[in-house]
Design goal:
Layout lengths: L9 H17 L4 E2 H11 L8 H13 L3 E7 L5 E7 L1 H25 L7
Antiparallel strand pairs: 1-3, 2-3
Length: about 120
């Protein structure tokens, strides 16, 4: 009997979703962490709030994975901050993850709104 694939844990699912949100936000250009969290919040209609305790570990993980790079720069308010940008690998990852996400949304929508089928 082949080994069963373990189901992703809730934390892995949430982590994957946060990673996708961050990577997607960085498609619009380099941003510092606070700007990333504001963009996610604004673009979700204030429904998604990314806490610092989740955001920065995710950014550091994405950087270790080679999906984002960072550099220190001055913000518009003249403060020093680390700005993150997508790498080539990060751009490829966004496309792959968005495709998976769209498949998941379609699957869930199919369950929530089943269509009547003729037999």
């Amino acid at each position: 009997m082949p080994p069963r694939k373990s189901k992703p844990s809730r934390a892995e699912i949430l982590q994957g979703t946060l990673d996708l949100l961050i990577l997607t936000t960085l498609q619009w250009g380099p941003q510092h962490g606070y700007a990333i969290s504001l963009a996610i919040r604004a673009n979700s209609g204030d429904h998604l709030l990314v806490e610092t305790g989740s955001l920065y570990p995710a950014l550091h993980r994405l950087e270790r994975q080679g999906l984002v790079s960072s550099e220190w720069k001055q913000t518009e308010s003249n403060q020093r901050a680390r700005f993150y940008r997508l790498t080539a690998a990060g751009r490829k990852q966004v496309v792959a993850e968005q495709s998976k996400w769209e498949q998941l949304v379609t699957a869930i929508a199919g369950v929530l709104n089943p269509q009547t089928r003729e037999s």
